[in-house]
User: Which sequence fits this backbone?
């Protein structure tokens, strides 16, 4: 039995259906990330779990118990708000103690647990400060400590790293990941940053317009995106209109597909393509259409090419760069090849 | 003269130039001039009357004296009136807060047309003069045939009419109602604009609605509460219309005395001295309220 189960959640605001039948389950101790463009309903789904949003239809279960009708203050679901929502009139320690005081815990116990929670997030000495006297990263850690001190069953975080600068973000991401692993709390993150999703989660749920496009481990999503939306949202991808003949792609015969002959779309990542100068076949397992370099840019370890290979869009190819190698000049004739045909996806033509 | 006073920043040339550049001050200039000419100067003139000798309507030149002030401060009547002004204002101000807060909170929880209607209802009493509203209370609270007594007698709750009019009760009731909008408006502005996520955070941490209200909503509105308290206290403490009308002929507060000495008795010296006492004590109380408010609200000054 998964720890968190959301069953066909539907929520509309006026005529707009913000959540359109979302079903999701998260195993105990796992980290799930909701990934999707802004406005797709991630926050609304999270708020439904926390009890701030009442769904029009569907059920929410935590630990097998239906909590759909439970008010937010009776759920054991910790919520870290997007901008932390710390109480500005309380000190750091008072913020962290808030939930314990509400639960009428004895004073010495509160003191003890607050001190421990602040230690976990390395804020021990700052207990007497007010939130306005803290940096963004420190505020975030207070928000996390305030929730963790209550030892909730579930931890929800809405874009927790958005307000942090890039460097701090990276260190907080790893810190939080370690912390969650250590405490073993089932967690759901919201983000619109794909690298954050890849890094933090056991499972990624890619959302679009109130529905899930794909729910899978991050690498599975990267390697086998269900559709072009997922493929382009996580990493980059070429979506090529191709023909199928005898179970293989016409332009890339190495790529086989168990589909009837006819038109189809091929999803292939830029780093799964390679190219060689000239019109000659680049070699074993590499067979593809000839093309012309439109644009090339060297980025240290790799070279990014845009190649006109007869498709409506330029083909993007990323190749590893050897030391001293200079990109091919624009206009050079090249031959394109697929590195791993198994990592390509052939889907129905026109799938969005 | 200290070093700071002669430091370059304080040189007159600099100061004038800074004033010319000081965009912060200039927009307020018309208002400041207006207030100086029509408020500060007349007030100073009035107060000055308390410290000179007036003989047959003329100021006797060069006759500064503290004697009238001394006399007033030694008059137990003045102290009794000040005490009444004070407790009537305090009770009325607290009542105003207790009545205004739920109204402002309700306003912050309503939306659309209801919100607009509430705002109109809060503001509309200001469209009639305080005098008219005080007279209305006269009708409501008045003798045997006043609305309150008439209703209670008809219902058999009481046999004899309650004596409300011409007591502190009438004055406090009237003042509270008349000053209500001045308490509601600052509260309403702050409560309507407050950050609702703080309440959600409180719920999420396990607090009930009531706990959230008292631990989050009320503390966050402390600045507005104290702004309202200071404002309403000042206008209650110095109000003379309501005590005069609802307190009746034998009822007086310090403000009523100022009015009577100046307009009825025409003893301008005593009127001015009492006005000075009223004004300075009012200032002191308002200052105290603001100070207490900022003490409670110290977190808002906390910055990195
Ligand atoms: N309380 C609300 N009232 C009306 N519309 C809302 C409300 N909350 C969210 N929405 C709408 O629902 C959509 C999804 O919002 P949200 O869940 O915040 O998206 P995300 O977090 O993925 O950016 C948006 O179009 C937003 O305008
Ligand atoms: Mg959001």
Assistant:
């Amino acid at each position: 039995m998964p720890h968190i189960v959301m069953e066909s959640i539907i929520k509309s605001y006026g005529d707009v259906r913000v959540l359109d039948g979302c079903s999701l389950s998260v195993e105990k101790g796992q980290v799930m990330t909701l990934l999707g463009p802004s406005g797709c309903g991630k926050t609304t789904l999270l708020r439904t779990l926390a009890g701030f949003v009442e769904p029009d239809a569907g059920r929410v279960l935590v630990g097998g118990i239906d909590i759909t009708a439970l008010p937010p203050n009776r759920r054991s679901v910790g919520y870290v708000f997007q901008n932390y929502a710390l109480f500005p009139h309380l000190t750091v320690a008072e913020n962290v103690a808030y939930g314990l005081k509400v639960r009428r815990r004895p004073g010495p116990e509160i003191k003890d647990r607050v001190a421990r929670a602040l230690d976990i997030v390395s804020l021990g000495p700052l207990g007497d400060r007010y939130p306005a006297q803290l940096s963004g990263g420190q505020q975030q850690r207070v928000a996390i400590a305030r929730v963790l001190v209550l030892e909730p069953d579930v931890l929800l975080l809405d874009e927790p790293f958005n307000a942090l600068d890039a460097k701090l973000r990276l260190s907080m991401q790893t810190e939080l990941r370690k912390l969650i692993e250590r405490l073993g709390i089932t967690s759901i993150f919201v983000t619109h940053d794909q690298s954050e999703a890849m890094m933090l989660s056991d499972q990624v749920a890619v959302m679009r317009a109130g529905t899930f496009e794909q729910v899978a481990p991050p690498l599975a999503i990267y390697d086998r995106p269900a559709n072009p939306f997922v493929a382009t949202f996580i990493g980059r991808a070429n979506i090529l209109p191709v023909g199928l003949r005898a179970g293989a792609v016409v332009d890339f015969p190495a790529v086989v597909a168990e589909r009837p002959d006819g038109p189809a779309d091929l999803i292939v990542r830029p780093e799964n393509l390679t190219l060689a100068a000239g019109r000659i076949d680049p070699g074993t397992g590499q067979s593809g259409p000839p093309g012309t370099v439109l644009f090339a840019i060297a980025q240290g370890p790799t070279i990014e090419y845009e190649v006109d290979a007869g498709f409506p869009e330029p083909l993007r190819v990323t190749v590893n760069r050897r030391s001293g190698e200079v990109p091919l000049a624009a206009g050079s004739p090249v031959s394109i090849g697929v590195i791993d045909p198994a990592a390509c996806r052939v889907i129905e033509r026109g799938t969005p | 003269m200290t070093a700071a006073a002669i430091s370059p920043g304080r040189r007159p040339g600099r100061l004038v130039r800074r004033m010319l550049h000081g965009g912060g001050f200039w927009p307020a200039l018309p208002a400041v001039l207006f207030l100086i000419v029509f408020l500060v100067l007349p007030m100073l003139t009035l107060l000055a009357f308390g410290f000179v000798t007036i003989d047959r309507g003329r100021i006797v030149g060069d006759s500064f004296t503290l004697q009238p002030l001394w006399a007033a401060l030694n008059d137990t009547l003045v102290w009794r009136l000040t005490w009444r002004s004070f407790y009537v204002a305090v009770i009325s101000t607290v009542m105003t807060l207790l009545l205004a807060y739920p109204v402002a909170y309700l306003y912050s929880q309503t939306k659309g047309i209801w919100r607009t209607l509430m705002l109109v209802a809060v503001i509309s009493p200001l469209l009639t003069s305080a005098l008219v509203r005080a007279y209305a209370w006269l009708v409501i609270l008045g003798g045997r045939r006043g609305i309150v007594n008439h209703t209670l007698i008809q219902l058999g709750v009481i046999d004899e009419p309650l004596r409300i009019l011409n007591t502190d009760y009438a004055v406090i009731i009237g003042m509270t109602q008349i000053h209500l909008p001045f308490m509601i408006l600052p509260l309403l502005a702050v409560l309507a604009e407050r950050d609702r996520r703080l309440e959600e955070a409180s719920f999420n941490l396990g607090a009930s609605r009531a706990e959230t209200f008292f631990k989050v909503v009320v503390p966050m509105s402390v600045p507005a509460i104290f702004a309202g308290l200071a404002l309403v206290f000042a206008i209650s403490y110095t109000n003379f219309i309501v005590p005069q009308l609802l307190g009746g002929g034998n009822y007086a507060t310090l403000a009523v005395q100022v009015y009577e000495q100046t307009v009825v008795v025409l003893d301008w010296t005593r009127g001015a001295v009492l006005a000075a006492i009223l004004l300075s004590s009012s200032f002191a109380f308002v200052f105290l309220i603001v100070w207490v408010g900022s003490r409670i609200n110290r977190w808002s000054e906390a910055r990195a």
